[in-house]
Design goal:
This protein has 475 residues and is of the alpha+beta class. It has 15 helices and 20 strands. It has a five-stranded antiparallel sheet, sandwiched between helices. The protein has a three-stranded mixed sheet with strand order 2-1-6. Helix 7 (205-216) runs antiparallel to helix 15, helix 9 packs across helix 10 (285-296) and helix 10 crosses helix 11.
Length: 475
Amino acid sequence: MRRKSGIIIWLVIIITIPALFLTWQYVDYRSASRVLPAEMSMAGLLVEGMTPDHALNALEVAFATPVEVTYRGQPLSLSPDSVELRYNAEETRASLDEILAARSGFDGFIAHVLRRPPEPVDVPVAVAFSEERLAGFLARIAMQYDQSPQGPVPLPASLTFRPGEPGYELDVESSRARLAAALTSATERQVELVVRTDEAPPLEMDTLGQLLQSLLDDHASLIPGIFVKDLQTGDELEINADIAYAGLSVLKISILEETYRILDAPLDPEITEWLSNTLGVTSSNFQANLLLRDVIGEGDGYRGAENLTGSMNYLGLRNTFMVAPYDEVGALTIVTPANSRTDITTEPDPYMQTTPLDIGLLLEMIHQCSHGGGALMTAYPGAFTADECSQMFEWLAQNRIDSLIEAGVSPETVVAHKHGFTGDTHADAALVLSPGGDFVLVVYLYRPQWLEWEESSSLIADIAAATYNYFNSTQ
């Protein structure tokens, strides 16, 4: 009898303990069911441990909060009402109840007992907005904040350039997708709009032309002739560059070129002295004529002028000629396209003429030749070497006057040039080796009857400074 009683007691214990455990687990399960389970989210908001009412209220607060928007750092705000955003709490509650019901019952209780982690679930949230209103918001933002690229602007007061500015354009489609996601999110309520950037336009020769023209506008009745060439890109700027001007001492550049075409380096001391005095500060017309007579003209100065003219024409410089040596007169002049114009005239010397364009191209030929190529070597095979053309450059670089083009560039910049002037015409023509790039600059100025040195020298220096700043705008 005792043995039977002991068995009954043990059976009761065995049944009671699991029953008590399951009862305790069920009570705990029912208690846990009053709040939302782990790994549950709604519109990006983690609602684990919240009651359903608390979660739905948190969503309502979130959807009523404006979306913080930025356009390239500019803070903006998008009000939910402005896009007719509507949050349907009842529909959202129905979706939540449906998911909770699927997790309840025996399977849910067993999962709780076994401490099986629930699968992540994102409860659908009933929220909508007006696509049309959102498109209108983006259109207003684009209209207010988008800007087209702005080109560089000349600054006459400083002879410099204000850099160009990039353009900005709202990427409407990409930004719309970001805003739509933020409007329907309870947590990610900040949006950086997608903005495309268009690079700022580069500084171009036309802008330099605007700056130079602004300088020239202050000098009434002056007829300027300007030629600029970028020796890296080949870009050119011309202001009256094909007008005929008096050749002046600037034409001694062509005498230099012809001397090296005819003679081989090294030159004998006498020729060297003639070149030094012809191209240096003294700018001797007498010794220039010796080169015309004894080197280019085979003993005849007029033939030297004729040969020089023929060579210039052969090089394509058809507006450049000499019919007589310096300080001499010729029997006639030469008709060229430049001096045939009837719309403008500088009353050029009838015996020697050129244009800023012709002289600029001749300087470019010397520069190219010093690097082993170019028109001089093509037109006269074997007549020039790179070393001879480099010597021509050095001759021009020794002409130091600390005025005109030299006065407009930095002290360390190499300026190989030849200047010249008469009462009504002043000029300077240069190859300039600057840190930002090598360039040709030729400036002729003409004023009827008389041109003051104070006016021309400062204007040419300003033109040189503006041109130098163009090539060195990033230095």
